[in-house]
């Protein structure tokens, strides 16, 4: 098993743990991107407006799995959420996360 296999399995395990805690999936792509396809049941808060929505997200009182197109914006979003006391993990690109959640 290579380092990437190890990291991917660890990420998969963490995402499954978040799901078991009823995590919400937060898609931080633009509204236009989101409207062209998204994970069923996910919430769309574009990264540009995320800081304005922290109080609303905190009120949900659930862990958050962030996603975007490739994983770059969702990494930034997860960091912002963590810095504001919200349990969050970067789920990466929404299409790969969608496949992971289906299994």
**Helix content bin:** 40-55%
Spatial gap, N to C terminus: 21 Å
> What is the number of helices?
5
Query: Runs with pLDDT <50, length 5+?
Result: 3-7
Number of strands: 4
> Globular, elongated, flat, extended or rod-shaped: what is the shape?
globular
Main sheet: strand order = 2-1-3-4
- The share of residues in extended strands comes to 15-25%
What's the helix and strand layout?
Layout: H1 3-20, E1 24-27, H2 31-35, E2 43-44, H3 54-60, E3 64-68, H4 72-83, E4 88-93, H5 94-102
Parallel strand pairs: 1-2, 1-3, 3-4
Molecular structure report:
With 103 residues, the chain is α/β, with parallel strands linked by helices. It has helices at residues 3-20, 31-35, 54-60, 72-83, 94-102; strands at 24-27, 43-44, 64-68, 88-93. The chain contains 5 helices and 4 strands, in the order αβαβαβαβα. Strand 3, helix 4 (72-83) and strand 4 (88-93) form a beta-alpha-beta unit. Helix content is 50%, strand content 17%. The chain has one domain (21-31, 38-102): Rhodanese-like domain (Oxidized Rhodanese, domain 1, 3-Layer(aba) Sandwich), CATH 3.40.250. The model is unreliable at 3-7 (pLDDT under 50).
